[in-house]
Amino acid sequence: MEFELYNQPSQYLLTQQLPTIFNNQQDKQKVRFDKKIKPVEFSIDDKVLYYNAAKVKQWSGKLDLKWKGPYYIHDVLINGSYKLRNLQGHVLITPVNGNLLKKYYDQQNWQPMVIINNINTTSSIILQNWIIDRNIIFKISKIILQKSNDYSFLSTMY
Predict the structure, then answer these.
(1) pLDDT at residue number 151
(2) Is it true that domain 47-103 has CATH number 2.30.30?
């Protein structure tokens, strides 16, 4: 049966050329994929979050946090791996791959800001950096309701 396949020269050439064709296509796909990837590099003392990869395959911890931290970068190792240090100064034993890290942005410098547009016609509230207490929002909404009788913005707020 095998000998019948190789009797025709086109099939024989095809079977010989298939591995090189596949390898060429895979190389082209790799080049295209690598163009899209933007490597993120961290420096020492950057604050990062560490992805909790143990939670990926579990169904029980659906609402658990997916990121641990924040941690500081303690040391930069080869091939994109890092040594981490927690906030108390203890260095983690195992190095961590850079793919499991993302930059941590502190909320200490965030300032709550309320922007109220067009109180007379349509009332809209844009809350940035959602740190404002619900009581403050309720007081602001009361003030707006007293100045204009437009209740449509309440449905988007809560």
Answers:
(1) 55
(2) yes
